[in-house]
Amino acid sequence: MPTRSYASTVLSAPADEVWRFLRDFGNLADWMPAVATGVIEDGGPADRVGCVRRLIGPGDTVFRERLCGMDDADRSYWYEILESPLPIRDYVGRIRVAPVTDSGQSFVEWYGEFSVDAADEEAMRKTLTGAIYRPGLEALGKRFS
């Protein structure tokens, strides 16, 4: 059974505005703390299913992630990790933006499911939620405040 990490937030901007920004799979370095650089490897469109982004993080760590699907009607995309320094396998993550209809704000959730050795399970759940998803969502909150 896969392990799951999850985080969510409410942003002070309309869902369509937030989605226009987030749907660019290649712009993670523009908003994600600790990502120094990010590029689409073949230079193609950053919203093309199958494109691969290469991210350089702390200590020159390399993450490579492939865009597996994008759904503009649902304001979401999902991706898989191809290469990572983390001891996880079969990771599939998703970012989704939904309107908060009574306030005009956005509800953003970021989560992932992955396999991991039992000894690393709790640490990896906490790492993804606390060191990746939550800081990323906080940075989005500042961008859209």
Automatic annotation (TrEMBL):
Pfam families: Polyketide_cyc2. InterPro entries: Polyketide_cyclase/dehydratase (IPR019587), START-like_dom_sf (IPR023393). It comes from the Bacteria. PANTHER family: BLL4707 PROTEIN (PTHR39332), SRPBCC FAMILY PROTEIN (PTHR39332:SF7). This is SRPBCC family protein. It comes from Actinomadura miaoliensis.
